[in-house]
Amino acid sequence: MAQGTKPIFGGPLTSVIIPAAGSGTRLGLDQPKAFVDLGGSTILERCVDGVLDADINAEVVVVVPADLVEHAAALVPSAVVVPGGAHRSESVRAGIAVSGNTDIVLVHDAARPFTPPRVFRAVVDAVLAGHRAVVPGLPVADTLKRVDASGRVLDTVDREPLRAIQTPQGFTRDALIAAHADDSGLATDDAGLAERIGIDVHVVAGDPLAFKITTPWDLRIARDLVQEVAR
């Protein structure tokens, strides 16, 4: 059993890969996003704690920039920490390479540190139920319009069948490996790679708390949440 494994209940051991090698330039800070402090702990620490609190028998693999492996290992000693690549897909493949021979693999954004335990469990349960690829998603609340390069509205998009996709994204191990076998193109998420090779992707209910910290506004909300819980 790999370092970082936290047995909680019977059943297949789950590997959770957390790509955290991005620079986070949109936050406008001088450090990678995962290492930003939220108020007593980093985004990465809160993310790993959230995985372990989800009770999914999780082996956690964190993928970070090569020069931050030792620092990350000190922050999250319950996880296996490895260096990542130039792109997200390369980092996920690095995580797959060192993960245990588990039946289920989740890929979870480090920048979603408040994802509730029920979302993790819903994804795992859906994979156990027979879906090879599962993503959490939320209905889209805003009106959506398709525009051309000049900004002229072409039409209003029906939002009813649309979902805003979050993580963790769950896969059978063979499905995730197959999705990453073709490295000829990049995708914004792993489910997109699975779709590209014809794997059906199933959506379960996401949660507003699983929002992604991307902009300074997101970071402000995250820090406010931490302060609110600490009161």
From TrEMBL:
Catalytic activity, reaction form: 2-C-methyl-D-erythritol 4-phosphate + CTP + H(+) = 4-CDP-2-C-methyl-D-erythritol + diphosphate
Listed InterPro entries: IspD, IspD/TarI, IspD/TarI_cytidylyltransf_bact, ISPD_synthase_CS, Nucleotide-diphossugar_trans
Record key words, sorted: Isoprene biosynthesis, Nucleotidyltransferase, Transferase
EC number from the UniProt entry: 2.7.7.60
Gene Ontology biological process terms, A to Z: isopentenyl diphosphate biosynthetic process, methylerythritol 4-phosphate pathway
Residues carrying the site annotation Positions MEP for the nucleophilic attack: R159, K212
Site positions for Transition state stabilizer: R26, K33
EC supergroup of this enzyme: transferase
Protein name (Swiss-Prot/TrEMBL): 2-C-methyl-D-erythritol 4-phosphate cytidylyltransferase
Organism in which the protein naturally occurs: Gordonia sputi NBRC 100414
